[in-house]
Amino acid sequence: MENRKGKxxxxxxxxxxxxxAVEFLMEKEGYNIRKCYDGQSALASxxxxxxxxxxxxxxxxxxxxFEVAKKIRENQDWENLKIIFLTAKGTREDKMxxxxxxxxxxxxxxxxxxxxxxxxxxxxxxG
Amino acid sequence: xxxxxxxxxxxxYVAILFLVAYWAERRAKKxxxxxxxxxxxxxxxxxxxxxxxxxxxxxxxxxxxxGFLPIFLGPTIIAPLWMIVLKKIIIISKSQRINSIADFxxxxxxxxxxxxxxxxxxxxxxxxxxxxxxxxxxxxxxxxLISHSSHxxxxxxxxxxxxxxxxxxxxxxxxxxxxxxxxLDANERHEGLVAAIAFESVxxxxxxxxxxIFITFILHNGVGDIFEKASDLPIMEKxxxxxxxxxxxxxxxxxxxLSMMAIMFLPRQFHVSVVENTNxxxxxxxxxxxxxxxxxxxxFVLPIALSGLIQYPEGLVNPDTFxxxxxxxxxxxxxxxxxxxxxxSAATSxxxxxxxxxxxxxxxxxxxxxxxxxxxxxxxxxFDVSKRLLGIRRVxxxxxxxxxxxxxxxxxxxxxxxxxGLISFTAVAQFAPVILGGIFWKRGTKAGAxxxxxxxxxxxxxxxxxxxxxxxxxxxxxxxxxxxxxxxILKPYALFGLEGFDHISxxxxxxxxxxxxxxxxxxxxxxxxxxEITQADYFVNVYKYRVSSQDFExxxxxxxxxxxxxxxxxxxxxxxxxxxxxxxxxxxxxKISELNIAPPELVNYIETNLAGSIGAASAKVIINSIAKExxxxxxxxxxxxxxxxxxxxxxxxxxxxxxxxxxxxLQLKIANHKLKELDQLKAEFITTVTHELRTPITSIKSLGKxxxxxxxxxxxxxxxxxxxxxxxxxxxxxxxxxxxxxxxxQASDKDADGFEDIPFSELVRRSFLNLKQLMTDxxxxxxxxxxxxxxxxxxxxxxxxxxVVNLISNAIKFCPPVEGIIEVTLxxxxxxxxxxxxxxxxxxxxxxxxxxxxxFTQVSNQELGxxxxxxxxxxxxxxxxxxxKGSIEVSSRVNFGTTFKIILPLLKKESISFGEA
Amino acid sequence: MTNDRSYFIFGIFILAILIFxxxxxxxxxxxxxxxxxxxxYWFFFIAWLLVIVGIALVTTVHRRKI
Lengths: 127, 917, 66
Fold this sequence. Notes:
heterotrimer; B: alpha+beta; 67% helix; C: two-stranded antiparallel sheet; 2 helices
């Protein structure tokens, strides 16, 4: 539990209502939360404060999640940043694309709250 | 020499011939054919060498030097072409059961009866003089031997020869009848006769070479010695210089051409080389063996002639008899007898073969067709033709020999062997255009052949045999110098004023050229009937038929089996009938006895076999008397036959087809592309719909779970989450409704039920106000200008509301997050009301502006980001507008914004005003 | 029949026509003699024999050997 303290999670989703739910779950686990509603601002946010983990939606206006992940992986400074895709796009191709673009975990919506929490915690603790 | 010795020797020689012939027939029956090899075949061709060669050559050489030679060089020159010309004729004749040259011509030109008759007449009149000189040669040589006093003998007058010739004629008839008409053979082949002829060819060559060697090397010291002894003779000049002997290039050439034609088209040559041929490959060896034979038989001609000229004072001995006289006067009686028998064999072989060939023609192409025309052949009481046929043959043999004897008695004695022989050559050369044209030129017609042959025959008769009759006093000879009927251009030796040629060249030039042009232009100006077309194609393209199938038939004849059986029985006999039917049954696998109507294959098969016995024209007439021909149009005919034309047509069709196919393929590709697109659209739609469904479900599910597992949440939080759940649930049901709407609209296309008068201005205002809060929340500056408050249109209130809300919602979705602007304008334009909804969002690329109204389509690319909505909104909108007889357009510039414009027909305007806008 | 053979057949046919006709024949008809025998005699029979050999070669040899 200790090493979760002070860890920051960036939530990126264009659906504010989903952000509300995820934010609640993550705050309850004791993480610091940052929120963005599109890809462009997500990158700007990372530039400002590098989070430990990013929960990334795929279908967003402007830059989509895959591209955001790719940009993150292009930057050496952000190599410790874990990426979890959290998206309604659930086909095999989408998953492969997610992993190919540097995502660690690929979760599909609608997600199970406990599963999401476990996935995030494991990613933070064991990398 | 005592006559009894000569008679005994002759009978002994004929007995040997009989033995050879009999032995050959026995072997043939056992299947060990004696004549089935190229050597016997080549020897049988040497029937070309007659008494003319044997005696006449020396005579010709003694009077005109080299003039004897072209007649033998010609066949040598043409021999290599046999592989092309003669081979084709043989193959055609074998498959069509052709058994004479008249039959060949008749068959080629539509199985014409009259062409067969004409060709037969030409052959008979052309060959009779030729046969007569053989009788003359035999008779005169026998006389020389018997009288033993050749020096003082002028054998053209005197009663005893007449008897000799008559007896010889009778003997020849007997031999020919015995071996030529023993039975009616389907292929008209006589193995015994061919063996006898080959034997005679060997015998005459050996005899002549013996005489030559005796005279050259025993009486003299070789060829050089003879030439030296003869150096003072006037003939020598001619031997050194061709032109000095009066031979010019033209005469020389014409003689060569004549002999080239004769070697193929003399009836007896046609018979041995084509009808009696058992394998066309024999031509390979024969084409050099036969010229070699000619070479050998000519080797000693000049030495013998010179020897005779040295030995006898001029005019004392007829040079035609030198071969015999020289050994006789040298006291070599037995050698002379041997030589005389050689000459006898040369003459008899020619007579036998020529008479058989002519008798086949006379019976099959002259007597039978005329007989058949005059009688009803299907009447069973007429006569038994198969027996009669042999009778006809025998009678015609007797007739031909008698005619020849008559010619010999009246005319032949006054001319040399060679000059009479050349008259016959010129006659048969008339066949060349129609035969060569017939096998290489499909366009040659019956009419053309008839014109050509008739012209050639008439000119031949007028320029050659007619004057010989006059010169020997048979008819008045004044026309020779004055022209016939006193017309000066119609002189037989100077026709149309052409002078300066010898008689033969003159006749050849006129008869062959008019024959050729008559045939050529006659063919060009006439048309072929279906039978002609069939036959012409078969003859010209025989190899094509050989490759594809043996039974060629284009004309489809049908006949009753009983008729066919009756008829075959009558012409071929019971035995042949059964064999033929059995072979046919075997080949086609059917039982003829079970049939009532004979199929065309059987009718054709029988006709071909009948043709083998009675000639093509007769067979056609007979078959036609019992068969019905399926009418076949000329067009059909051409379609079947014109292989090349067919191929061209076919390839054209193919081109057309492939073009069609390409077009179809293109259409298919387009259709397939559309289908694929549609498929992709559908897949995308489903993905989109699922995504749109998942999004609200995600928040509902997640927040619901949070509320459930966190009972200690603050009331504000609880309220907030519950509100989200409600909103998202509404969103979810909206989506579901939209999908359902789509189905409904699609089902009720153009359904005007439930339409009412709708205050459209009011509808737009309300919809705008409903969404105003949302726009403000999203930092959008909303604007609404309604120019006329009283617009009424006819329509469905809910559907129209959906349209307006859809458009405004779309605009909201595409507005930039900051400083968004949405303008709604409603105005009257003419009889329509026009609604415009504009935003300053990302815009729609031009290539997608058309597509956005299609079902399942979303504007989705990286620039535009997340597609807004289900992809159904605009499609539904468009459908609704169209149901209201309106239209919808979009104008957009990327990054500057989009304007949707709806035009709906205005029902009426009311003066209503409302407070705020 | 091969086309090759047809060409040779026509070749020998035309050659024979040429050498056995005027004006070619005129070359040998000038009163000359060889071993007491007129040149024409030699020419005719030697040329004749050669033509026969030629025909035999063309018709019996199956394939030209190069």
